[in-house]
Amino acid sequence: MAVVKNHSLGAPELDTHRQPRNGQPKAPARPQKIPLHQLYALPAPIRTFPLPSFYPNNPLSLFHVLWTWSNQLLSPPPAEPSVVHQGHWSPETRSVHVHDPTSVRALWEQGFFGKGSYSRSEPNWLKREQTRQGQGEKRVSELVTVQRREERKMMKWERARKEQEAILRTRIAEAWIAPVGPKELLALPNSLEDLRLSSYGLTNGHVFSSTAEPNGHVNATQDARLVTPTTPDFVVNGGDLSDPPSPHPNPLLNGKVPGAAVINGTPPLSQESDEAPTETPDVPPTLENEATSPEIVDREHLQLTLEETFYLVFGLGALNVTNPSTGKVMATEELFHLFRQLSYAPSDTAAMQPDDPFLIQYAVYHHFRSLGWVPRPGIKFGVDWLLYIGGPVFAHAEFAVMVLPAYTDPYWKTRGHEPPQRSWHWLHSINRVQAHALKTMVIVYVDIPPPTETSDPASLLKRYKIREFVMKRWLSNRSRE
């Protein structure tokens, strides 16, 4: 494509009317993808309008601040959140489901809330299905991950096959016996002519007869001490590639000649075979033969955890949860009471205390969200939460959080309430897993307040205190000064 310079603006201008030199029309340009920092620009499903910074050494910055403040005062921006998403409470899964595709993409791209019901994290089941049927993009993160895993698996199997072949060659070399005995030396032919005329064959220094017996069978006797195994042939696109190569001999493949390659599940014909491969005549394509693929319906929904749901409802006000039995929107106090009740197994209303599992976990979740982190469930690594910088699409989680309650208030000491005991074996096991995954272990202690009569969520959450401790494995050879 030629470039024509615009002398008035000084910027290059693309000439799309010229044809390429070969005379063929050029293929249409692919649409450029949106950069990640633009696609995930908002850290939450709300928009803020901060004032610009004021610099004392630059008086002009004051006019910028006054100008922005006056514009927001005269024409105030819309109230936030401008869009309130709708979710449905699911008692079976104990989570909230969001079915609207626009809300699903908005909640994921603006804070990385929830996970796809048919996906590992990002709800892109529809994109994967379109890619599988050749209707959409050719690159999906999950498919790339599966392809890399298969490549690593095949690499390991190929390495194992080479190791088995090396072992077989070593065994053959060790089992070989040199013809140094008197009988073996006398049995050797004296000349090349004797070797041609001799009816005896030589195998590994041992003589065996190949003359036909009266019954018409051939007597082929060889030394049983040496059996040369053969490497099995591989079936390409026609067999089961899920099994690693085997070192055992495979004399026949489906009754065919051993050593023949099998391609696409059809072995080649032997030289003695009189059969010729049949050719199917080319059938011109018709409208009946062309099968049009039906339009794929997006059946995936976004699944929110209890902590994510309450943060969107209570902390941001960007989500409404509908009760499936009544069809009405559930209030914040109703959700708070329900989530506290469901944190016990089985759920019990009378057992709700300040050390409810939901209260402790949500206090930690809200704490890290307010600091700008993106907490995600960390059950894959045996912890409570994983902390991402910006989100899971930018980098792996750097910290793994384990939440522990701490009963430091005098009220609990007078009652003799003891925190759950953890052994050093448990702590070192969790820390070793995180070190192997290149993550830093963070122990978060939540100071449990004494019971109170209030049921307001804001009043209860203000009474919790959070303490963070970073823990690392100390290695003498890596920690020297």
TrEMBL record:
It comes from Xylaria arbuscula. Keywords: Lyase, tRNA processing. Residues 358-447 form the tRNA intron endonuclease catalytic domain. PANTHER family: TRNA-SPLICING ENDONUCLEASE SUBUNIT SEN2. It is an enzyme of class 4 (lyase). Signal peptide: none annotated. Coiled coil: none annotated. It comes from the Eukaryota. Belongs to the tRNA-intron endonuclease family. One of its GO terms (cellular component) is cytoplasm. Its EC number is 4.6.1.16. Constitutes one of the two catalytic subunit of the tRNA-splicing endonuclease complex, a complex responsible for identification and cleavage of the splice sites in pre-tRNA. It cleaves pre-tRNA at the 5'- and 3'-splice sites to release the intron. The products are an intron and two tRNA half-molecules bearing 2',3'-cyclic phosphate and 5'-OH termini. There are no conserved sequences at the splice sites, but the intron is invariably located at the same site in the gene, placing the splice sites an invariant distance from the constant structural features of the tRNA body. The active site is at Y388, H396, K439. Residues 1-32, 262-293 are annotated as: Disordered. This is tRNA-splicing endonuclease subunit Sen2. InterPro entries: tRNA_endonuc-like_dom_sf, tRNA_intron_Endo_cat-like_sf, tRNA_intron_Endonuc_cat-like, tRNA_splic, tRNA_splic_SEN2. One of its GO terms (molecular function) is nucleic acid binding. GO terms for biological process: tRNA-type intron splice site recognition and cleavage.
